[in-house]
Amino acid sequence: MSRILASAGAEFRIALRNRWVTIAVAMMALFSMVLSATGSAPTGALGADSLSVTVASLTSLAVYLVPLVALLMSFDAVAGEVERGTLPLVLTYPVSRAELLLGKFVAHLAILALAVAVGYAIAAGAALYMDAGATAGLPALLRLFWTSLLLGAAFLAIGYALSAIARRPGAAAGLAIGLWLVMIVLYDLGLLAAVVADGGGYFSTEVFPWLLVGNPADAFRLYNLAASEATAAAAGIGGAAGTIPSAHALASILLWPLAGLVLATLAFRKVTP
Amino acid sequence: MMTTLTLSKVTKTFGTNRALDAVSFSVAPGERVALLGHNGAGKSTLMKIVLGLIPFDDGAVSVLDAAPGSHAARRKVAYLPENVAFHPSLTGLEQLRYYLRLRGENPAQAPALLDKVGLAHAAQRRIGTYSKGMRQRVGLAQALIGNPRLLVLDEPTSGLDPVSRREFYAMLDVLAAEGAAILLSSHALTEVEARTDRIVILSGGVMVANDTLAALRRQAALPIHLQVTARPEQADAVARELDGARMNGIVVDLTCAHDQKLARLGQIAALGAMIDDVEVIPPSLEDLYSHFSRMGEQGTNS
Question: Which of A26, B133, B189, B279 could form a disulfide with B159 if both were Cys (CB 3.0 to 4.6 A apart)?
Answer without folding.
Answer: B133
